[in-house]
Design goal:
The chain is α/β, with parallel strands linked by helices and 1190 residues long. It has 51 helices and 30 strands. Helix 22 packs across helix 39. The longest helix is centred in the first third of the chain and has 28 residues.
Length: 1190
Amino acid sequence: MKWTEDQLRAIETRKKNLLVSAAAGSGKTALLIERIRRIVVEEKTSVDALLVLTFTRSAAAEMKERLSAALMAELEREDVDSDFVIAQISRLGAASISTLHAFCSRLVKDYFQEGGIDPEFKLGNETELSIMVQEALETLFEEKYQEIPEDGETPFSRLVDMFTSNRDDRELKSLVENFHYFLVTQPDSEKWCARALSYFGMDARGFWKSPWGRELDSLIRTDMEGAYELLESAYALCRDYEGFEKTAAQLQEDFFAVGLAIDALEEGYDDFRKALSGIRFARYSGNKKADAETSDHIKDLRNEAKGIIQGLQKRLNLDLSEALAQLSEMQGPMEDLVALTRDFQKKYQLKKAEKNLLDFNDLEQSTLRILQNPAIAAEVREQYEYVFLDEYQDTNDMQEAIIRRIVREDNYFMVGDVKQSIYRFRLADPTIFIGKYHRFGQETDALNDLITLSQNFRSCQGVVDGVNTVFEAIMSPELGEIEYDERARLYKGLDNEGPYVKTQVHVIENKTDEDTDPMVGEMPAAELEARFIAREIQSRVGKPIFDTKTGQERLLGYRDIGVLMRSVAGRGDVYAKIFSELGIPAYFDGGEQYYESMEIGVVMNLLDLIDNHHQDLPLLSVMTSPIGGFNTEACTEIRLFQKEGSYYAAAEKYRDEREDALAAKLKAFYKRLDAWQWDSRVMDIEDFLWKLYLDTGYYHFVGALPGGEQRQSNLRVLLKRAGDYKRSTLRGLFYFIRFIERMKKHKYDMSPPGVLSESENVVRIMTIHKSKGLEFPVVFLSGTGKLFNKRTRNRDILFHKDLGICPDYVNLALRAKMPTLAKNICLEKNELETLSEEMRLLYVAMTRARESLVVVGMVKNLESKLAAWSGPGDLYHLKKAGGLLDWIMQALLRNSAPEILEEEKRRRLSLPSYDVYFYTAEQSLKHHVSEDTVGELIEEAQAPPEAMWQEVCRRLSYRYPFEKQQELPGKMTVTEVKRLRTQAEALGVPEIPERVALPSFMMADAREITGAEKGTALHFMMQNLPLHKLRAVAADTEAFKRLLEEERQRLIDEELLLPELAETIDLEVIRGFFQSELGRRMLAADRVRREVPFNYQYDPRKVLPDWQNAEAPLVVQGMIDCCFEENGKWILLDYKTDRYFGEAGRQQLIDQYRLQINFYAEALANLTGMPVAERILCLVAMGEQIKVDR
C-alpha cells in the first residue's frame, strides 16, 4: 500500500507519545495495523508486549483478524523469520488486544488481593444490576423514612420535601441514581464532591474566578457579541442609503450602547449589569416609502438584537449577592444529597458483594485502586512496550486515569477524531482529546507529537467539498469544540477522478392552504419525506455511477444506498413501510422498538398470565391471540355473562357454571395455563420459554407473517435474554418478568436483532450512530428539519464535570422553586455541549458518503427560514439553530441574498459545491413523475402473442422430475432419521430449529455449566469405568464408593475431564445404577460392549414417503451406548440423563426415544447376527430403567 507522508510518520515514529488526529476515511485502522505489523516483524517485538485497547468487542476481534492476516502475509516473504512470525500468530488469541473493560477484568483477577476483590467474581448482567439498584434504593429509603421522628425532620425528609411530588418519591430516587452513575466516572469522586460543594459558599470575587463565573462570562460575551453583529449588519444596510439617515443614526446609538456594555464586562459584573440595564431600544425609525423590503429587513435584524439584550436583562435581573445567597442556602441540601448517595452506594455494593458481582464501573475503580500501588503499576508498565488506544475521542476521565498509570513516558499511541466524538450520552469526554490536541500541537517536547491525517481515501471531490463548505462555516472551538482549520479539513486522497458530483439539498415546505390537495395536507411529515426519498432512489438505481475507488463506472444498486437519520423513533418504520409499498427492498436497522413488537408483547403477556392468572389485560391479549384462539364474539359473550367486576373473574365463572362449547374451550385453555404454570416452577426459564414456543406453535405462526424472519429472530433474542437471566443470580418466572420489564424501562436491547448479510441488495435505513464506521456510495441524510432534543431542562439538579452540582433553588417556607444562577449557567453549558455533539453527528453522517450525498429536510415556513439562513451565521445564530438543516443552510447562505431560479416543478439554487432544491409538499410528491411519459409507456405496452405467453408460462413452471431424490443424502445419523420420520408423521409441520448453545469460547462472560454438559460428563465417566474393578467391589458399598472417587480423579489427572465438570458428576447415581439389578446383570455378563459405533445400510423408503423411488440405499451411522450378551441374546442399553414429571411425562419420554432405540436394536441384530432380547432406556439421573417395546 502507498502511504502518505503523514501516515508514514505515524507508522514509523518511535520513542514518543503520538496523538494521531485521523479524519473520516483517512485509513486509521489500516495505519494502526501496519504500525503494529512493523513493530512485531521488523523489531522482533512479541505480541505479548503490546497492549491494544478499543471500545467494542467487535472492533477488538476485527483488529485481531486483520493483524493475523497481515502476519500471515509476511510468511510469503523469503527474508522473514517465519518461526518467530508463526509464534506471534499463535499467540494472537491470548494477546492483550481487547476492550478496556476486558483489560481491567484481567488486571483485577491478577491482582485481586490488592483490590480487595474475590477472584471468582462475575460481571453482573446489566438488567440484574439495574434491579439491584432499585432494591438498594427501596431498602435505603425505607430505612430513612423509619428514622424520621413523628414531630420533627431529618436531612432525608427535607430532601423528600424539596425534590419530590405529592404522589411519590420517584424524583428523588432518580436524582440519587443519576448522581451515582455520574460519580462512578470520576477518578476521585470524594475530591470532586468536596470541590463541587465548596462553590456554594463563595463571595462575589470568588464567583468570577470559579468555573461558574468563567462560564457565565463566556455565555454573556457570546450573546452580547451576537447582538452587536446583528446591529452592525443592520447599520451596514442603511449607512449610505438615501432616506435611511434617521435609521442609521438610531442604529449607531444602539450598537454604541451594546459596545459600552461589552466593555463594562472587563470592569466587573456589577458594572456590566448597570450598563446592560441602561440599554433602551427606541421605537424603530424606518422608511417604508424609500424601500419597504430593506426597511423590514433592518427592522427584523434590530428586533432580533433587541430580543437578545432583553433576554439577558431578564436572566440577569437578580443581584449577584442575592444569587449567591440562594446558592449558599442550597449548600446544606446538596451536602445531604451527597451523603444520601454515598449511603446508597454502600447498600448497592453490599448487594453486589452478596452475589460476588461487579459492574463495569467497579472494574474501572478497582483497576485504578490497584494501579495506585507503584510496584504494581511499574510491573504492568514493564510488561507492555507499546500501548495503543483506538477511538481515543470516546474516552473519559476514569479511563484516562487508568491508562496514565500503565504507559511509559514515551510509548503511548492514541488515534481518533474528535469531530466524530458522538457518545457524550455514554459519558465520553471529547475535551480530553481536545486538550492533548492543542498541547501536543504546540509543544516542541521530544516526547509528545501530534500528527493529523486529513487525506480522505473514501469520498470523491464533490463530497469532500460539500463537507468542507459546511464545517468551515459552522464548526469552531465554541461550537463543535475544535477549529475546522487547515489541519481539520478534508483533502481528497483517491487518485481517480470522475465527473464532479455536487452535494444536493432538498428542502420541502410542509405548509398547507385551501388549494393543497387534501391527501397531501393530511399526510404525516415523515411519510411525505419518505415518499420523496423513495422516488429519488427509484430515479437513481440502475443508472451509471462512477466509483472513485476503482476508477470504473458501474450501475447503482440498492445495496449502494444508505438512508441515515438522527433518530428512528416515529420515522424508521414509516420509511421501511413506504419503501416496501413502492417496491424498494430495504432493511431497517433499529426499527420498531424490540419490546413493543407484537410477537414479544404476546409472549410477555402469556408469561404474565402463567405467573398470575388474575390479570385482565394479559388474559385478553392471550385469549385473542393465535395462542388462545378466542374471537371477539366469544370474549364479548363472557363479558355479558358477568358485566360487573374483573374480566378474569367473569371468565372463570363462565368456565365453572356453563356447559356449552365456549365453556369447554375455556376449561381447555385454563388447563394448559395450569400445566405451563407447573412447568415454569420446575424448568429453567430458557427451557420453559422454548417449550412454550413448541407447545403453542407461535414461533411458526409469526414466521408466516410479513417480516417473519425478523419476528422469529426477535423471539430467539428473547430466548437469549432468558439465557442471560439463567446465568444471573435471579430465579423464577416472576423475577424473569421483572428482569425484562427493567430492560424495557432502561432501554436495553431496544432495537431488533439484525438478520441481514452484507451482500444483500437492499437499501439500509439506520441511525447516524449506527452508521459510524460504515460507508455507502450514496447517502441520503433525512429528517434534517427535525428539531434538536433538549431534555435536560426538566431536571431539578444537574451534574457537570467542571461546573459541579447545579440545583434549583427551593424555599419550602415560601413554596418557591426556581433555577439558581448555577443551574442557568449549567443549562446553557449543557445546551452548548449537546449542540456540539449534534454538529459532530452531522459530520459523521456527511462523511459516510463516497460518491453522492443527498440531504433532505422539511420546514414549516420557507420564507422565514430563508431570511434566518441568510443572516450573519455567527456563533449566536448557530447556537439558535433548531436542527441539522439550519446549520447546512446557514453555511450555504450566510450574509447573502440567494438568487433562487424557478423551474417547472421546483425552485433551485446553484452554488459551487451544492445544488439546493425547494418544493411545496405537492411538488415533492410529483416532481419525478411526468404524465406524458406515463401515457407513452401505457400506449407502447402490448400484450404478447398467446403462443409466446404459453411458452413463457411453461418454462417458468418447469419442475425437475427427480427433485425429491436430490434431497436423499449419502449418509445420515440415527438422530437425523428420527427427526425426519417424526416430521413426516406430523403431516409436514415444519420443525422448529434446535436450540443450540454457543460454545464456551464465544461466550462473553463466565457462565454456569449447562445441564447438557453435566449429562455428557456423567455419560463419559460411566463409559470409562473399568468393569473388572467394578466386579471386584460390587458387593461392598463403601469400597465401591472409594473406587468411583479414584476413577473420577483419574479422569481429571489424565486431563480427560475438566475439574469443574468432574465435580458435577453425582457418584451416587452411578453407584445406584451398577448396584441395581440391571447393573449386576451387566457386570455378570462375559461379553459387554460399550460405545459401539456402526454404519448400517437402511431402506430410505422407511424414512420418508418422498423417497419411495430411491434406488440407492441410505447409510445410517450411530453409536450404541452399551450392550451385553445374556443367554445368546443382546441386552441393549441406552443411557439418558432426562427427567420427567408424572405418568404423562414418562410416556412422552418413552415415545420420544422409542424409534431411536429400536433402530439401534435392528442395526445390532443385523450386523452381529444375534437377536436383541431387551431394549432398555436407562434414566440414570432418576435411577430408573424402562423396557421399551417395538
